[in-house]
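User: Hi! I'm working on a homework problem where we have to compare a predicted structure to a textbook description. Could you give me the structure for the chain below?
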Amino acid sequence: MDIALYYQEKGDKEPFIFLHGNGQNSSYFKNQIDYFSNRYRVIALDTRGHGRSPRGTKPFTIEQFSCDLYDFMEELGILEAVILGFSDGANIAMKFAMKYPDRVKALILNGGNLNPGGVKITTQLPIEIGYKIARRFASISPEAKKNAEMLGLMVNDPNIEPNELSQIAAPTLVICGRNDMIRESHTKEIAKSIPNAELSIMKGDHFIANKRYLTFNKVVESFLLKGCI
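Assistant: Happy to help. Predicted structure tokens:
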């Protein structure tokens, strides 16, 4: 790996990795880190170019982020982990679980999407406009270049076909808010395409892990306990 990812860690049992969304960092999971650290070794990391993790020189793509996760687990000697991804973190988790099914003990996908079309137009349109503007000024402004890379993740990524999800072997929970920025039909398609995946649609928007963490944590915990994970 060309960079060292920053991460927060708490607990010493089964590894449980948390992956944040676009433009965020590991602190998004502040209400999960303490809660799950009694039963797990909670590891919340900052994705490449996010938070306190350096950008490095490799591509700024969901595919690369999934490779970074593999290298990260190798470096820490983690052979298998429960993985929870939110938004782009869920997209990274899907890519990772398809490529390395034996490294995933259980998978929780919160607010992920297979392609940009899975995002409601009211959210996606301003992102695409912002991306075009940022790209125009990227060559003369470091800030615009960074914005273009971040927004590009939501304009050009991910690119996952529903049938590819059949490669995921781990017990999976797909969870979202009823008023999520991801189309509900799209979330249901993800759940339907993963073998034996569970679907939970709860009250709230895209940010249920942060805004409605008590309910969110209970749903996730119940799913893991049911599978004796």
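For your comparison, note the following. DSSP finds eight helices and seven strands in the chain. The CA atoms of residues 5 and 72 lie 7 Å apart. Good luck with the assignment!
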